[in-house]
From TrEMBL:
One Pfam family this sequence matches: Aldedh
Domain Aldehyde dehydrogenase, residue spans: 19-478
Any one GO molecular function term: oxidoreductase activity
Keywords: Oxidoreductase
UniProt family annotation: Belongs to the aldehyde dehydrogenase family.
Top-level EC class: oxidoreductase
Protein name: NAD-dependent succinate-semialdehyde dehydrogenase
Active-site residues per Swiss-Prot or TrEMBL entry: E256
PANTHER family reported in the protein's UniProt record: SUCCINATE-SEMIALDEHYDE DEHYDROGENASE, MITOCHONDRIAL (PTHR43353)
CDD domains registered for this protein in UniProt: ALDH_F5_SSADH_GabD
Amino acid sequence: MTFENLDLLKTQAFIGGDWIDATSGASFVVSNPATGGAIATVTNCDIEDTKKAIKAADAAFKSWASWTAAQRAQILMRWRALLLENAQALAEILTAEMGKPIAEAIGEINYGASYLEWYAEEAKRAYGDVIPSTSPSSRAIVIKQPVGVCAAITPWNFPNAMLMRKAAAALAAGCTMVAKPAEDTPLSALALAVLAEKAGLPAGVLNIVPTTKAADVGLELTTNPLVRKVSFTGSTGVGKVLLQQAASTVKKVSMELGGNAPFIVFDDADIDAAVTGALASKYRNAGQTCVCANRFFVHRSVHDEFISKLSDKVAEFTVGRGDIEGNNVGPLINEAALKKVELLLASALRDGASVLVGGKKHIAGALFFEPTIVTGVRAEMEIASSEIFGPIAPVIVFDDEDDVIADANNTPYGLAAYVYTQNLSRAWRVGEALDFGMVGINEGIISSVSAPFGGVKQSGMGREGSKYGLEDYLEVKYLCMGGVR
């Protein structure tokens, strides 16, 4: 595909305000999952390059932290404006390297830009406290200060928005950042750095280290004593490793990890609304989101109506390259992702489930898979206990409210859940009973800049977005002032 703005297509690392090659001279190829063709050859950073980036962020921290919130906000708002001005060009890069339809990619750019606006405004409200003193000669004051150098390790499925969600909060708080984008999608992060530099962000405040050496670079980011905070979005398995490593220097951490979202349709649900929500939650980004509906629990009395209407809509999807207008389901990110989807489906079929729609690779290309609905699924099947990360909707029949809550909660994960009911009492009752960090009630898209994003149990800790997201980049300091007469 062609690109609207080649100035945004950077291939070097961005460290200390400079575009540089890796110390070793190493590089790697970024490919388009829709075609298999190479897009660009990108600098492959290692531990030494990561140390340089951390030192650059540390050198920039004191000055950046001394800026007022309003001054930092001006830079972030200029950065936001540049994102919006270049939304089409950024979306083209995003679609090329990870495959999602261009309309979804543009939506992601706008979503990422919204975090810059939100935190530019929110940083001005990082209020402290005056605590009533226990002594007439002293005063107790609480202030909030930026944590320091922060590391961000971001995923491939939302390469723009996930970096923006972390960087906007960190930079607004007065922190500096070293970001390691996923090796499948480094170009989006580098393009954002181009615009940050153009917006006037001082050298060293944001650093981007693309790499295929994720374990080595991750270890440096989590153990280097100059790094005070690590924010990671990715799998639970990798998150556990990073947590162990970060413990060696007792860093602050934010972890947004895997999910296994239940989507519950009760007998009193608006079925048309439930189908609309299911389509948005399950098949957006070809099912490759951490909050995707992963298990559909449908009450027996409405099961047939729900799957009939869902099937009709799924059959209308157009699968193909994301840069071709009209296609609304793109490829999976790589061969490993495709293989996982195929294995989970095969396991379900061996255990007695049936394919209602789809069920195989799509003719559009090597990494495309048909949007699929599987019926006859039981809660104990592997396809219902694993995060699918693909366009497959497994449907489970239920009869009892208490039983479906128990089945929905029977997972080590607790990121997102969805409930469809028109009964207000049930909405409150089930919403409170579900052991998940976020619950969509009669709503299939729950992410919002103004709402806290994050999970419980093995889906992570900390929150991103909203007023709570800023707190993770601030330290609370207590000042005791004595000698007051």
